[in-house]
Amino acid sequence: MDIFAPKSVPVRKIVLLALSFCGFVAFTNLSLQNNSIGTYQLAKTMTTPVIIIIQTIYYKKTFSTKIKLTLVPITLGVILNTYYDVRFNLLGTLFATLGVLVTSLYQVWVGAKQHELQVNSMQLLYYQAPLSSAFLLGIIPFFEPLSGDGGIFGPWSLSALATVLFSGVIAFLVNLSIYWIIGNTSPVTYNMFGHFKFCITLVGGYLLFHEPLSLNQALGILCTLAGILLYTHFKLVEQEEGKNRLAQRP
């Protein structure tokens, strides 16, 4: 069917990418554990300005002033939400900050490695996934009990096993979508797409889990959404202008 064909890639060139994925998984989960759902989701939106900074400084990529200005309401919204979060704590903020930094590096490297190694999303994930799994196996004993009730080698119910397997399938699809979107667009655009899902998560956290949501936090969410919508608008306009310039060339 010619859907997927592995390509030989030096493993040493994937090590940093695999390690950054491990940090992405660990710190984002620790952030979720120590923060409210709203703060966890909004903190993740800070990956966008961090990615822009990384790409500007280290990859010499340029962004228009309009695109950069959309980061102002996004950042302001995150600050508002975090400041007025009733579950604000220093440890949660630390994990959220580390999660943002590592996630930003991971997403930048996903795009960079696909271009550097001339591979597609599936070919890169083919090497990165097992390598990351091996690294994560080494740190599991430090975060999870190994035996007893709830332990890795403890008794597992059928429902728990099914949930873990289902979660693994979903995680694979999420990772594949990350690679595909970044490979075909950019890390910044991927983040903007991803930010829309946080609205559903915030509403779900408020309705299903009764997460507290103050008026100031709601304003922070709206502020962040405004920045995301502005970015999307400006990006579409720039893409259309680029197509028009190409069409006008002789």
From TrEMBL:
Annotated membrane-spanning segments are 14-32, 38-59, 90-112, 124-143, 155-181, 188-209, 215-234
Residues in a coiled coil are none
Q: Name one GO cellular component term.
A: membrane
Q: What is the lineage of its organism?
A: Eukaryota, Metazoa, Chordata, Craniata, Vertebrata
Q: What is this protein called?
A: (spotted green pufferfish) hypothetical protein
Q: Where in the cell is it found?
A: Membrane
KW Transmembrane (keyword) present: yes
What PANTHER family does the record tag this protein with?
Answer: SOLUTE CARRIER FAMILY 35
Return the similarity comment: Belongs to the TPT transporter family. SLC35E subfamily.
N-terminal signal peptide? none
Q: Where is the Sugar phosphate transporter domain?
A: 11-231
Q: According to Swiss-Prot or TrEMBL, what is its membrane topology?
A: Multi-pass membrane protein
Q: Keywords assigned by UniProt?
A: Membrane, Transmembrane, Transmembrane helix
Principal place of residence: membrane
Among SUPFAM superfamilies, the record links this protein to: Multidrug resistance efflux transporter EmrE
Summarize the protein's role.
Putative transporter.
